[in-house]
């Protein structure tokens, strides 16, 4: 669960950096019912995220595809990758 919290923190930090540099809004919404889920939003695009602790991975899903990513000890690179994907879609 620590890695998931660290990833969410990195996603929020990166979203702030993006906004401060370009005024583009990227946000991470918490899920109302589960702390293991969140939604990453950029403009009209979004990506659902779910932490699967039994597999120690994040499942991401867009309207067109989905995948699984391990959360590394330093989740900054994964945060950049996820935000990059949602911004391009």
Structure commentary:
The protein is α+β, with helices and mostly antiparallel strands and 89 residues long. 38% of the residues lie in helices and 33% in strands. The chain contains two helices and five strands; from the N terminus they run αβββββα. The protein has helices spanning 2-22, 76-88, and strands at residues 26-30, 37-42, 45-52, 57-61, 66-70. The chain has a five-stranded antiparallel sheet, with helices on one face. A hairpin with a 4-residue loop joins strand 4 (57-61) and strand 5. The radius of gyration is 12 Å and the shape is globular. The chain starts with a helix and ends with a helix.
Features:
globular; 5-stranded antiparallel beta sheet; 5 strands; alpha+beta; 89 residues; 2 helices
Describe the structure concisely for a colleague.
With 89 residues, the chain is of the alpha+beta class. It contains 2 helices and 5 strands.
- Main beta-sheet annotation: 5 strands, antiparallel
Q: What is the residue-averaged pLDDT? A: 93
Rg, please? 12 Å
The helix-and-strand class reads alpha+beta
Please render the helix and strand layout as text.
Layout: H1 2-22, E1 26-30, E2 37-42, E3 45-52, E4 57-61, E5 66-70, H2 76-88
Helix pairs in contact: 1-2
């Amino acid at each position: 669960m620590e890695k998931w919290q660290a990833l969410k923190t990195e996603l929020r930090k990166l979203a702030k950096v993006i906004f401060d540099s370009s005024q583009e809004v990227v946000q991470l919404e918490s899920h109302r019912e589960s702390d293991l889920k969140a939604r990453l939003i950029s403009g009209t695009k979004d990506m659902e995220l779910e932490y699967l602790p039994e597999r120690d991975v994040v499942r991401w899903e867009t309207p067109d595809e989905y995948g699984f990513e391990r959360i590394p000890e330093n989740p900054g690179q994964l945060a950049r990758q996820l935000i990059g994907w949602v911004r391009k879609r």
